[in-house]
């Protein structure tokens, strides 16, 4: 039996950390679907056509060291508006969701479009200033120099583009459990997510 956990939410809300922790706790595979869009965005910044890049992504594209940069994040959210780019990435994501005993996928449209039948849907959010402060600390740790105001502007612009697009806009699925991490430390947020998944797991027969 495969069990799918769909985790969506805006930029820098804590989805990545929560997804990795949920996957580790239950022994599930994990796919950060943002990396697919980032890999396409990185190839577009290098001069390629977005749709052609999305149709020919390789594991090497996903391992590029520059995928976490702010420039690539913005490029990702620009290519993510294009329906043909999104369509090219659907089968890979759905195939991943069905593998093994379970999978965690995190992104923007997992519970709404990619895996609408997911056993668990979480929507992880936090206020824009809190998310910007977290992203700022992350970027600093990675050696990117960017002021907090610029990071906030970046996060707000990306949210607006992701939530405002016609195709697969960022929004919680109707049946998603919303976790607002604005006032939570990461351990509390992870524990809240794990509790939701644990409640939904089928009880093993004796
Ligand atoms: O999650 P991450 O910040 O890495 O995502 C980068 C961008 O990729 C997002 O801003 C969004 O535009 C796009 N994305 C998407 N659908 C997903 C995952 C990411 O449109 N499932």
Per DSSP, the total helix count is 10
- Amount of beta strand: 5-15%
Helix proportion: 40-55%
Number of strands: 5
Low-confidence stretches: none
Characterization of this structure:
- The structure is a single chain.
- With 206 residues, the protein is α/β, with parallel strands linked by helices.
- The chain has one domain: P-loop containing nucleotide triphosphate hydrolases (Rossmann fold).
- 53% of the residues lie in helices and 13% in strands.
- It has ten helices and five strands; from the N terminus they run βαβαααααβαβααβα.
- The protein has helices spanning 15-26, 34-45, 50-55, 59-62, 70-79, 83-97, 110-114, 128-141, 148-164, 186-200; strands at residues 3-8, 29-32, 102-107, 120-125, 177-180.
- It has a five-stranded parallel β-sheet with strand order 2-3-1-4-5, with helices on both faces.
- Helix 2 crosses helix 5 (70-79), helix 5 (70-79) packs parallel to helix 9 and helix 8 (128-141) crosses helix 9.
- 42% of the residues are buried.
- The model has no long low-confidence stretch (mean pLDDT 95).
- Bound molecules: cytidine-5'-monophosphate (C5P).
- Residues 11, 33-34, 37-38, 73, 76-77, 80, 107-110, 158, 162 line the site of cytidine-5'-monophosphate.
Secondary structure: elements and pairs:
Blueprint: E1 3-8, H1 15-26, E2 29-32, H2 34-45, H3 50-55, H4 59-62, H5 70-79, H6 83-97, E3 102-107, H7 110-114, E4 120-125, H8 128-141, H9 148-164, E5 177-180, H10 186-200
Parallel strand pairs: 1-3, 1-4, 2-3, 4-5
The chain binds cytidine-5'-monophosphate.
């Amino acid at each position: 039996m495969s069990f799918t956990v769909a985790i969506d939410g805006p930029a820098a809300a804590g989805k990545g950390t929560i997804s990795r922790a949920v996957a580790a706790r239950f022994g599930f595979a994990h796919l950060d679907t943002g990396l697919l869009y980032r890999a396409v965005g990185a190839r577009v910044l290098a001069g390629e056509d977005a749709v052609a890049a999305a149709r020919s992504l390789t594991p090497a594209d996903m391992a590029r060291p520059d995928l976490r940069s702010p420039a690539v994040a913005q490029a990702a959210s620009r290519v993510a508006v294009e329906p043909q780019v999104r369509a090219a990435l659907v089968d890979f994501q759905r195939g991943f969701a069905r593998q093994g005993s379970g999978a965690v996928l995190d992104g923007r449209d997992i519970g709404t479009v990619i895996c609408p039948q997911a056993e668990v849907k979480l929507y992880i959010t936090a206020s824009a200033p809190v998310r910007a402060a977290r992203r700022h600390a992350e970027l600093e740790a990675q050696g990117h120099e960017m002021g907090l105001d610029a990071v906030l502007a970046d996060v707000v612009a990306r949210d607006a583009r992701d939530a405002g697009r016609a195709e697969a806009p960022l929004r919680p699925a109707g049946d998603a459990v919303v976790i607002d991490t604005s006032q939570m430390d990461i351990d509390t947020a992870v524990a809240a997510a794990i509790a939701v998944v644990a409640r939904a797991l089928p009880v093993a027969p004796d």
